[in-house]
Design a protein that fits this description.
rod-shaped, 118 residues, 2 helices
Length: 118
Amino acid sequence: MSDSLPGPQIDEQGIHPESTAPQAYEPAVPQAYEPAAPQPYEPAAPAPLGVQRVPTGNAGVDAQLERLADADHLPADGHLEVYEDVHRGLRDALTALDARPAPAPAGPSPSPSYNHRS
């Protein structure tokens, strides 16, 4: 009885007799690099960002925030003009908040007969 298992037989060099003989190694020859032809660039069409604008309660600020919606319909190179305009308007609105209120108009003076006793 033999201890060998049935299966492919291998010769003395470790090669299966039915396999093809090993091929000699031939390194790949590098080919010249040719960059791909440039594809035409088509920018995406303007589209709203979908950012919710929440009213602030200040009419001047709310008007400037609504102005931002104009950028939704412009190509990217048109956004700068809108942003600068809104920035200028918001700066003016903040400056107006910092301004001192005008003095109250002078009302009627108390009558001389008013005598206050504590």
